[in-house]
Amino acid sequence: MTTQTLYQLAAEQKSAEVTDWSARISWAIGLLVLVAFVYWLMRQGWKWRGNLQSDLPAPATVPEGFADGEKLLTLSGRYHASTTAGQWLDRIVAHGLGTRSRVELTLTAEGLDVVRPGAADFFVPVADLRGARTEKALAGKVLPEGGLLVITWALGDRLIDSGFRSDHSAEHPAWVDAVNHLTSTTEGIAR
Q1: Which residues of 124-159 are buried (b: 16+ CB within 10 A; e: fewer)?
Q2: In a structure prediction context, what are the per-residue pLDDT tens digits for the chain, which is 191 residues long?
Q3: Which of 75, 88, 120, 171 could form a cystine bridge with 96, CB 3.0-4.6 A?
Q4: Ramachandran angles phi, psi of 165, nearest 5°
Q5: 3-state SS record for the chain
Q6: Burial of 105 (0-12, 13-18, 19+ CB in 10 A)
């Protein structure tokens, strides 16, 4: 190769283009605005659902002397959600029932105490309990077969399914038996 050819090759090569920072910043800001808008839409949908369910009465609170009663069962785990009974995707958000949280459940002859740190606690009187079963899905949460303890209860004139997952899923069958026994005993007394 001659020196002339080398000069021609060198002249044809160009340095890399300089990064266009204004275009990158514009795209980043646009993406952030889009994410914020989608988040705002989701929040508005949650509030709208809460307004639609505003006819639901507030769940009961723990009665006086509840802590003095004999505890049939306790459970520590996660509260996943509450839905309209039989409709595993129809989440109830009114009164904080749609908020996932840790949970401490206590079952006594008086009812079910649901203590949720960071969310609203509630109490289900034994007269409002309708039964319990294990499921694999509730409110968009899908787990292995029997991974969720679902307790059905009445809130006003509406039946509610509330889903719980114990830290030890082997506890679920005992809860199903205890709640179903308690509800069958209560139905027998009511007759």
Answers
A1: bebebbbbbbbbebbbebebeeebbbbbbbebeeeb
A2: 667 676 676 666 666 676 788 889 999 999 999 999 999 999 999 888 888 888 899 999 888 877 777 889 999 999 999 999 988 888 899 998 988 999 999 999 899 999 999 899 999 999 999 999 999 888 878 888 888 999 999 999 999 999 999 999 899 999 999 999 998 876 655 54
A3: 120
A4: -130, 115
A5: CCHHHHHHHHHHCCCCCCCCHHHHHHHHHHHHHHHHHHHHHHHHHHHHHHHHCCCCCCCECCCCCHHHCCEEEEEEEEEEEEEECCCCCCECCHHHCCCCEEEEEEEECCEEEEECCCCCCEEEEHHHEEEEEEECEECCEECCCCCEEEEEEEECCEEEEEEEEECCHHHHHHHHHHHHHHHHHHHHHHC
A6: buried
Residue indicated by tokens 């910043």 = 25
Beta pairing partners, 153 = 129, 160
Structure tokens at 39: 């988040």
Which of 111, 92, 9 lies closest to 50, judged by CA?
92
Token duo for residue 96? 């904080």
